[in-house]
Design a protein that fits this description.
4 strands, 2 domains, single chain, alpha+beta
Length: 101
C-alpha cells in the first residue's frame, strides 16, 4: 500500500482543526468550572429559615402541605383550606378556602 505524504494544504487544515479542538476544550472546561463555582457560591449564600417547633391546628384538621415566608407559615389542610399563621405568635392570621371548580 502506498503511503503518500500529506500536502501542505492538508497539514495546514489539520493544524487549524487541532487548534479549534483545543480552544473548544479550554472553553468547555472554563464553562464547567464557572457553573460549579456559581453553584457553590449560591448554596453558600442560602439562609436557614427555622421551622416552627409545633403547629397548633384546629380540631379535626390534618396537614397535607407546609410552606413558609419570612414572618408567616401556612398549612394546607385535607379540607381544601390554607391556614396562614404568624411566625412570631403562632396565631392564625388568615384562612383561605381553595375552590377546585
Amino acid at each position: 500500500m502506498d503511503e503518500r505524504e500529506p500536502s501542505v494544504g492538508e497539514v495546514r487544515h489539520l493544524k487549524y482543526l487541532k487548534w479549534l479542538v483545543t480552544i473548544l476544550t479550554v472553553t468547555m472546561i472554563g464553562g464547567v468550572l464557572t457553573v460549579v463555582a456559581l453553584l457553590v457560591m449560591q448554596f453558600g449564600a442560602m439562609h436557614d429559615i427555622a421551622l416552627p417547633d409545633a403547629v397548633d391546628l384546629p380540631e379535626g384538621v390534618a396537614a397535607v402541605a407546609f410552606t413558609q415566608g419570612p414572618d408567616w407559615y401556612a398549612v394546607v389542610t385535607d379540607g381544601d383550606e390554607i391556614l396562614v399563621f404568624s411566625r412570631s405568635t403562632g396565631e392564625l392570621r388568615q384562612t383561605i378556602a381553595v375552590n377546585l371548580d
